[in-house]
Amino acid sequence: MSDRTIKILEKQREDLLVRVLKKHEEMESSRFFTERILAGLSEFFILLDRDFRIIQVNREFLHRTGYPPPQEQALELDALFTHTTGGKIRAMLQGSGHGEMEAGLRTASGELLPVKIRVASHSTPDGRLLHMLILTDCSEFYEMMAQLYDGQRQIIHSNRLASLGEMAAGVGHELTQPLNAILLFARNALKALDAPGDHRDMIRENLHIIIDRVNKASSIIGAMRSFGRKVESDLAPVELNALIRKVLAFLDSQLRLGEIELELVLSEEPCLVLGVDVRLEQVFLNLAQNAILAMGRVAAPKLSIATQFAESLNMETLRLESKVLVTVTDNGCGIAPEHLKKIFDPFFTTREAGLGTGLGLSIVDKIVRGFGGHIEVESVASKGACFSVYLPHYQNKDDHE
Fold this sequence. Notes:
Oligomer: single chain
Structural class: alpha+beta
Order of helices and strands: HEEHHHEEEHHEHHEEHEEHHEE
CATH class of the largest domain: Alpha Beta
Shape: elongated
Number of helices: 11
CATH superfamily of the largest domain: Histidine kinase-like ATPase, C-terminal domain
Distance between the termini: 99 Å
């Protein structure tokens, strides 16, 4: 072999070595760049092969879940999610190759993290199929929502206690009357015992009156205890006719002190809705109290409350659905047109400073919407207002079988 040929071969070997080294550097640089990007992600990144085996995860995933890297210990998709969730992820990747869902991610310690999952499939230039999962940790969001919900419950409870304070004068008057009657008839019974002759019939009648007055006082105290208790969160069927009567019994002293005529037109059929009785009590207590305040300067105040069944459009399904409609109508001062659009806004109030927080109707609106309903309001200034509360009619499945 000549020297020329040897030099040509040496040159080709050097060129080949340079190209291999450059390619290696490019691959290393690309791998380093990819790892830097993955390490900077706040979401969890999971890369799977064609057979859904996990081949790569990012640092945030390892830190948050406590799993070892896939290179050290094989990690399966079904170890991270329930079998059902794993099946849904595979179905999305095998179908359209992309999609979103929410599920629980199981950590190495067994804790379930609420996550939002986004999936996508990708084919490399060499024909290799890869699946990617991007998971967003929703723990802080759900904790924040729980705190907001707890805060709403506290505000509702505070409003109920404030309502009890407003009732104090009327309730005090209501309790004074039965207590005075009990004292009077008890003294009469004692005098009859010391007086000559047979007074058993009179004593028996006095004792019956005392029992009746004690029951009256107990019902007033029971109503106050009911309205002062904490809000419960379990949904259950609530009969609105009975609930409204309970609210009106609580407001009885206010209605009589204000000489307000009450018109009650309740449906003969039970008006069942699915909700929490304490929250629904707050809705109709607030609406009735607002009506009473609005009629403070009316010569012949009149409060009308009616229940009936109606069909209303569900804005999500665009279908007519059976609703229970409760209307609370007064002939008070009404609501100015410019205030109607703001009436359910938080902290909006037309009362004087220090006499209202502006949270009452805002909370009422949120409670009703939380149970799948909505509120409408109609008003003419100086002629009164009508609040219409629509709530989904609860029908027991057993009743249709």
